[in-house]
Specification:
The structure holds 2 protein chains of 2 kinds. The mean pLDDT of chain A is 90. The N and C termini of chain A lie far apart (76 Å). Chain A is built from 9 helices and 12 strands. Chain A has helices spanning 2-17, 21-36, 41-55, 61-108, 156-171, 180-194, 271-274, 285-294, 300-314; strands at 119-126, 134-140, 144-153, 200-209, 214-220, 226-229, 234-237, 255-259, 265-269, 277-278, 281-282, 323-330. In chain A, strand 2 (134-140) and strand 3 (144-153) form a beta hairpin. Chain B is of the alpha/beta class. Helices cover 33% and strands 37% of the residues of chain B. In chain B, helix 1 (28-36) packs parallel to helix 2 (58-73). The longest helix of chain B has 16 residues, at 58-73. The termini of chain B are far apart. The chains are: A alpha+beta, B alpha/beta. Chains A and B meet through strand 7 and helix 8 of A and helix 2 and helix 4 of B.
Chain lengths: 331, 115
Amino acid sequence: MQEFKKKYKKILEQYLLKQTEHNLYEGQNISRELIQKNISPEEVISIHKASLEEILSDIDGDVQHSFDLLIEVMVRYGLALKEHQTLIQKQQNLKMEMELAANVQQTLLKTKVPKEIDLDIGIITVPAKEMNGDYAHFLHDNTHVGIAVADVIGKGIPAALCMSMIKYGMDSLDGAETDPVIVLDVINRIVEKSVSDSMFISMFYGKYDTSKSEFTYASAGHEPPLFYCSESSSFSELQAKGLLLGVIPNVKYEQHSITLNKGDFVVMMTDGVTECRSKEGFIEQKTIMDIIENVRDQSAQEMVEYVFHKLEELQDFEQRDDFTLVIFKKV
Amino acid sequence: MNISVELHQKEPLIINGIIKGEIDAFTAPILREKLAEIDIKENLQVIIDLTDVSYMDSTGLGVFVGFYKSINASNSHMELIGLSSRLKRLFDITGLGEIMDIQASSGEVKIDETV
C-alpha cells in the first residue's frame, strides 16, 4: 500500500506541475495496477487526499471535507465492484463445469457407426451450445442395424440429463432386432415416469434387416425422415404416426417397412435441420432436398458434412438449434 | 424475439387468450408464466388464439403440453385456434394434434406434405 501511495503522490505531483497527455496517461497506468491489487475506489480517493495534503501544504478546510464526503459516497461503488468481480469468477467456474459436463456427455453418448458390406452410414451432430440436446445412437448385431435419432425438447443441462434416460432405455433393449414400436414404447414409459412435466422427446427409430434389405421404422412425434429412391430420382417422406415421448404412458405407434435398393438412402434429422432460417425466412424442405440430391453420389459421410456446411452458410453461420443429420445409404 | 400474451376472462368459466409474436426458447418462459397465472378449475374453457404467432419451435410446444397436462388433470378444456399451416404441421408431426383440440387458421388450405 505504501508503495502505491508513493507512486500515486509522484504522479499527482507531476500532473499538477504540467498537465500533459503523458502525465495523465501515467494515471491510467496506475489505475490498472490498483484494480489488480483490489484497492477499492474509496481507498484511492483517500490516497489522493493524503497525497494532495502533502504536496500543497495548505488546502482549504472545505476542500478537505469535500474529499471526506466523496470517500463516503464511493464506499458503495467499492462494494458494487467487489460483487462484480465475484460474479465474474463464478461465471468462469460455471463455464469450466459446463465444459467438463459436455465432455462427460460426449463420452457417455458415444456411438459406433456400424460397418456393413452394403451399407454406407454418415452422421453429423453439432450442438448449438456446449450441451447437445440431440441424440443419435446405433445398434448392431449379425442380422440387424438399429438407428435412433432423438431430439430433447428443452435445452441445456436438464435436456442432456433427459438423454441419459433414453440411453438407459436403449441399453435395456434386447438388441438391434427389437421392433421399433417396442423401442419407442419402452423409452416412452421411462421418460413419462421420470422426466419433469415440461420435458419431452421426439424420436425416430428404424431397424434394418441386412439379409432382406428391409428398413422398418416408427416415430414418436419426430420430423419424418426423407427417403430417396434412386430409380425414380425422387424424395418422399417416411411418415409414421406416434405421439412425442413423455406425454402420456400408453401410446400406440405406427410401424412401416420399406425395401432399400442400391443407391437408395434414408435421411434422418432433427429440427435443427428443418427449422433453419436465413434472413429471408425459413429454408424450405425443397432447398434441403436439392442440396442433398446434389451430392447423392458421394459417400454418406461426405454428404452429411456437405449439407451441414451448406446450411451453416445459408444461416449466416448462426446456429440456432442442435443439428443432427444421419444418412443411411444402401450401396 | 418478442411475444405478447393477453388473457381475458369475460365469463367465470371462459378465458380467451391471444398470443402474438414468436414463441421460442427466449419467449417461452414468459408464456409459461402467464399461463401459470390462470386459476384452472373444473369445466373451465381456455381458448387461445395463435393467429398472430409468426414462429413457434419445440420449446413453445413444451409450454403448451405442460399447460395441457394441468388442464387435463382438472377436467377443464383447452383449445388452440388460428394456427398457420406451419404451426399445424408441427402439432400434427408431434402427434399433439391428435390429443389436443387445435384448429387451423380459417381460409388456409391444408397442404399434403408428401413429395
